[in-house]
Automatic annotation (TrEMBL):
Domain DUF2147: start-end pairs: 33-128
Recorded superkingdom: Bacteria
Upper classification of the organism: Bacteria, Pseudomonadati, Pseudomonadota, Alphaproteobacteria, Hyphomicrobiales
Transmembrane intervals: none
Annotated PANTHER family: BLL6627 PROTEIN, BLR1215 PROTEIN
Protease as UniProt keyword: no
UniProt keyword terms in alphabetical order: Signal
Protein name listed in UniProt: DUF2147 domain-containing protein
Region forming the signal peptide: 1-28
Originating organism: Bosea lathyri
Amino acid sequence: MQSGSSALRASVAAAGLAMGGFLSPVLAQDVTGTWLRDTGASRVRFAKCGEAICGTLAWLKDTNGPAKVGQRIFYDMKPAGAGKWSGNAFNPEDGKNYSGTMTLSGDMLTTSGCVLGGLICRSVKWSRTTP
């Protein structure tokens, strides 16, 4: 037999699980917001752009390089499964466009740019920041 407070906790937990079944897939896949690169060199702000997601440089540690604040480096990123997007990425360092993917896992985002049909890829990890 459960005490009153145990029964209440169980009811609240069950309600949270029930609501989570409706809300968590949407929240878990929300990549919008500002993300800090694992090296601490830049921040990218992801937002909707039409039917896709785009990422724009929001801050740079070194403003003397080829990358510029306000430059779009991820574009046309469309859903490609749970917590995944595919589209295009621009690398300001070499001035080239690549096929790009993003994978979200909690507050960690991994972006990859690939050439040769995905044979050669480079990945970068990002952590979610507060605005």
